[in-house]
Amino acid sequence: MRGYRGIKYTLFICCYVFWVVSAILTSVGIYGKIAKEKDVVDTLTLDPALLLIVVGSAMFLITFLGCFGALRNTTCLLKMFLGILVAVLLLQIAAGVVGYRFTDMVMERTERLMMKAIVRYREDRDLENAIDFIQQKFRCCGVESYKDWSRNVYFECLDTNPSLEACGVPFSCCVGLQNQTVLNTMCGYGVQQLEESSAGQDVFTIGCLQGIALWAKTNLLLVAGLTAGLLLLEVCMIGLAAGQISWIKKVQQLKNEDAPRRRSERKDSYWYPAFADFNDECNSE
C-alpha cells in the first residue's frame, strides 16, 4: 500500500506543480492580450501573448487530467493523461529526428519566420520586447546581419523614408559600454550606411540566426542537459501514471475476488472511500 501511495502522490504533486505553472502562463498571456488595446500581430508564431495562452491552456488541460485522475483514482482520466504524454514524447522525438535530418530546411523556415518578426517589429509591444531580448542576450542584430533591419519600414534605408530611424537599427543591437548607466537609444542611428568593420564598433553585426547557433554550440552540455531532463521528466510521469493504473486494476481484481463479503458490508454503509479496505485484503494474503 505504501508503494501505491508513493506513486499516487508523487504523480499528483508533479502534475499540480505544472498545473499551477500553466495557470500562471495562461493568465500572463490573457493579461498581455487584453493590455494590447488593438492587435496588429495576431498569429500564433509571432504573438508571444497568444503563444502563452495556447501553450498554457494545453498544459492546464493535460495536467488537470493527471491531477484529478491521480487524486480520485480514475483510470479513464489517467489513461487519457498517459496517452497524451506518450504522444507528446513521440512528437518531440520525431521533431528532433526531422530537425537533424533536414537541418537546412529547418534553418530556412526559421529564417523566414525571423524575417517576418523583423518586418512586424514595432507593430506589437510583446514582439518588440522579445526581439530586443534576443538581440541583447545573444549579442546579435537582425537575422543574417544588421542590414536586415532595412526590411522594416521604420529602419528602411531609403531617401524617401521620413523616419528618424531610417538606415538605423534598434538600440538592442548596440554594443554596451562598460559602466554605462544611461541607455543611449539613438546609438544605432545610421549604422546601415557604414561598412561592417566600422559598424561593428557601435553595434553587433552578426545575425541572430548564427548567434543562437553559436550559443547552442558553446553551451552544448547545458542544452543537452535541459533536453534530457525534460524527456526524463516526461518518461517518469508516464511511468507513474502507468504504475497507478496497474495498482488500480490490481485492487479492482482483488475486490472482484472478494465480492460476497463486500456485498454484506455495503448494507451497513452508504459511503465507501476509494481503496478503504485495501489494507485488509493485502494483510489477508
What is the element layout, followed by pairings?
Blueprint: H1 2-35, H2 48-72, H3 75-101, H4 103-119, H5 125-137, H6 196-199, H7 208-218, H8 220-257, H9 259-266, H10 278-284
Helix pairs in contact: 1-2, 1-8, 2-3, 3-8, 7-8
Report helical residue fraction: 55-70%
Report the strand count.
Answer: 0
Unreliable sequence segments: 268-285
CATH architecture of the domain at 106-250: Orthogonal Bundle
CATH superfamily of the domain at 106-250: Tetraspanin
What is the radius of gyration computed over CA atoms, rounded to a whole number of angstroms?
27 Å
CATH topology of the domain at 106-250: Cd81 Antigen, Extracellular Domain, Chain: A
Q: The biggest beta sheet, please?
A: none
> What is the CATH class designation of the domain at 106-250?
Mainly Alpha
Distance between the termini: 13 Å
Task: Count every helix, treating DSSP H or I runs of 4 or more residues as helices.
Answer: 10
Helix and strand composition category: mainly alpha
Topology pattern, helix = H, strand = E: HHHHHHHHHH
The geometry reads as elongated
> What is the average per-residue confidence, as pLDDT, rounded to a whole number?
83
Subcellular location: Cell junction, Adherens junction; Cell membrane; Cytoplasm; Membrane
Membrane topology: Multi-pass membrane protein
Disulfide bonds: 141-157
GO biological process, one term: pore complex assembly
